[in-house]
Each structure stands twice: as structure tokens, then as C-alpha cells.
Amino acid sequence: MTRIKIKELLATPPTGQTVTAKGWVRTFRNNQFIALNDGSTIQNIQAVVDFTTTDESILKRLTTGACISVTGELIPSPAKGQTCEIKVTTLEILGDCDAEQYPLQPKKHSLEFLREKAHLRARTNTFSAVMRVRHAMAFAVHKFFNDRGFSYIHTPIITGSDAEGAGAMFRVTTLDAQNPPRDENGKINYKEDFFGRETNLTVSGQLEGETYALALGDIYTFGPTFRAENSNTTRHLAEFWMIEPEMAFYDINDNMKLAQAFLQYLVRYALDNCGEDLEFLNKRAQEEEQAKPQDQRSELGLLDRLKFVAENDFQHLSYTEAIDILKNSTPNKKKKFQYLIHEWGVDLQSEHERFLVEKHFKKPVILYNYPANIKAFYMRQNEDGKTVAAMDVLFPGIGEIIGGSQREERYERLLNRIHELNLPEEELWWYLELRKFGSAPHAGFGLGFERLILFVTGMTNIRDVIAYPRFPGNAAF
Ligand code: 4AD
Ligand code: MG
Questions:
Q1: DSSP labels for 223-239?
Q2: Sign of torsion, CA 303 308 311 316?
Q3: Total-model pTM
Q4: Does 125-167+203-464 carry CATH code 1.20.1090.10?
Q5: 6-95 belongs to CATH 3.40.1030.10
Q6: What is the best residue among 240, 350, 453 to mutate for testing ligand 1's pocket, by most ligand atoms within 8 Å of CB?
Q7: For the segment 181-212, what is each residue's pLDDT rounded down to a tens digit?
Q8: ipTM strictly over 0.85?
């Protein structure tokens, strides 16, 4: 019999037809009720075995985590909350699971505990739901851009350029794994010149993306990016995925409009297509909220937060206006964080961002026109001589979810900035040539994919929205 996925079975009218399902046992109760899950949906299907006719030795092997195949009649279920169940006629154990050793018990485990079991945690409701939503979001990213005529460009992972200045990088070295060259102390000698120069893992595909925007018009990248920052926070990973659209003939305002449309599309897509998983994650987030002190609970539940963001315009605010608001607010008498901003020109801390989004405006904020000195060299210089056409999108509970800018398309201005910042002009020759040969106004931004998934799933630690999180001290496999 061909196996049918449980998601499909649960949507099939039960008329006693014979079906086969395969999956992992979640629970086995009263020697007859198997809750079976195959990852196609958060829901289990109930498979009922007849213990009077089933071999005792088989029943014993129906432990949590065991992989089985069941064949039987699909019949209406008398149990509450499920439309159908399988009346099992044939049961096969595909993979035993020793209950004594299996780390996942049919109870709630802490996320910290599950992080240690990264190879098994996808078998829990929480992680399977997060991963299905993550998949849906990746699909929606491509759909959004494809529908608008953007081309998906694969920018290099290994790169010689260090131009972004986004943070510390991972160095790429080569090694003959069969026969690594060793020094007299037995230490491996890494060769570093495979590409004829030092290379790193990319921190952003933007600069390469720009070269394609000035040829194809509208492009985007969507790939892994690497930052060797030693930051142990709930918002940073050493390896994360970033989506970077880059558009010829866009200015900063077009860029801000696209960023809002894109985020709203993704959130709407999740609401429309991930209903069951979001319902589950909503309940989960509610329980977490209840455990917090009253004044730290968010006012809206997950689903309401998503609807709000999908339906309301984001607040546009210049950096200068933001500083004024922050200077004039005393939101938290104990912390007095407003005094952390000594003067115009200082970068905002995440607590400032959160204040603006969560307390002051109570909606997503797009901050723009930042001081040039706290932003990257490639951002377009404004006429005031102090600011650049940068923009960050700040989200409730997340902080910065998008960073972007209009790019400096004027050759002389860009070259001067490169000199001012002592950047290696000779390494940026190709980037400068773009401004020599048919330069055009253009703009783009980067969305941190995991930060999006945090927002959409209501999870609170970025390590829980990627299959194998990479952070300082964590790359066991
Ligand atoms: O603000 P960032 O550094 O911008 C860039 O890399 C630009 N090249 C983007 C562009 O204009 N094409 O990073 C963009 C986004 C951030 O807003 C954040 O969401 C995410 O990437 N991000 C991280 N996510 C997880 N872990 C980290 N260490 C991250 N660093 C940035
Ligand atoms: Mg940024």
C-alpha cells in the first residue's frame, strides 16, 4: 500500500477505505491508542490496535519515538477533536526506540534541554511547527520576488572582499584532509592561498548583488551569511540566512515602501497558510507570557500581533527625530536609559529601539537618515553633509529586523568616503567601476531570516528557529 501523509488523511472523508500511514509514535495509551505523527502536520492521527489479536511482543515495542507503519480502515473517530482514525489491521515496527534511552518523553521539555538534542528536537510539536513555518516563509520570499519580476542571484559564500565592515569574519583555509601537512610539533599547517589570496565566508551578498541590480534591474539574494562576532544574545547567530533585494532606480523612499510591503506580505502569508502551526505556537507563546511578570507581558497575543503588523502602516521616523523623542522620555525611571544617548551621532541601543517600537509608537518603525559615522561606507550621502540615506526596520519584540540604504552611486563621493575611512581602494576597484560605467541610483536592504521567523512564530531565542544554530562554543556537529 502506498503511504498517505497524515495531513492528507485527516482531510479525507473516512468511509472505511484501507490506508497506510507511517510515522513516529508520540504516545501509546491503554494498550490500544497510538498517537502517530509524521511531520506533515502538527496533528497526530489516532491508530487503534486490537490488543486481543496483536502479539504482546509487538505491543511492547510501541514506545514513544518508535517508527511504525500501520495499515487499516479509515473510519470516523468517536474521540473528541478528530474526524477520523485508523482501525489497524497490519502493524509493522520500522525502527524501535528504547524508551529508557530516548531523551524525548511525552511531556513538555525546556527549550534549553532541547537545544542539546538538536538532532531530535524536530520531533517535538514546537520545533516541527517552527520548521514548517520557516519553510513556508522561505517559499513566500521567493514567491514575493518572483511575482514582482526579481531575479534570484546566488552570490558567493567564499569571498575575498571585506568591504561590508559588518563585523568579524570567518577565515577560509584549505587542508588536505587525507594527509594534512604538520609542523615539527605535529600541529596542522593550514594553507591559505588556494584562491591566490586570503578569503573569508561572506558577511553579506550585497556588494555582489549590486553589480547584478545594475544589469538585471531588480534582484535578490537569499543565502547563508557568517559573522564571527562573539555575541551571546537571543538575536545573534554566527551563521544566519539573509535576504537581500537590490533595485536599480530606487531611492530611499521606494526602498522603505518595498521593505514594508515585503514584511507585510510574509506575515500575511503565514497567517493564510500556516494556520494550525500558528494556533499551536500562539498557545505556546501565551503560556510563556503568563509565566512572566505582569509588566513584561506583551499586550497582544501572537496572532493579534501578526494581524496588526500585516494591516497597519509602519511609522517612518528620522534618526534625528528619534533622538529627540528618546531625550524627552523617561520611560523607565530606574534605568534612565535616555541618558545613554549623550549626543546626536551615537548609535541606538536595542533598548532605545524597543522603547520607540513597543512603548512610544506601538507599531513597527522605519528609522532613516542616520549619522554617516555609524553606518557603512557605501550609503548615499545626504545633502546635509552629516547623514546618509540609511534605513532600519524595527519590530516589536525583535528590534532591528531589516537594515538597508540607498547606495552612493556618485563615483567621486564614494571614492572620497573610501579614502576617509581608509578602506582598501584596490580591493574595491570592481565596486568603484560600477560607478564609472553607467552608474544608476539604486537601493536595497537585508532581512535577517531568523529574526523574521522569531517574529512570526513568537519564539524568543534565535537558536530555536534554525535547525543547527551556530553560536560561540556551539558546533558539536
Ligand atoms: O544590518 P545588516 O548588517 O545589513 C547588511 O548586511 C546589509 N548588507 C544589508 C543590505 O543593505 N543589503 O544586516 C541585515 C539584517 C539585520 O537587520 C538583521 O535582521 C540580520 O541581518 N542580522 C543578523 N541576524 C542574526 N544574527 C546576526 N549576527 C545578524 N546580523 C545581522
Ligand atoms: Mg544593521
A1: EEEE------SSS--SE
A2: negative
A3: 0.95
A4: no
A5: no
A6: 240
A7: 777 888 777 665 677 778 899 999 999 999 99
A8: yes
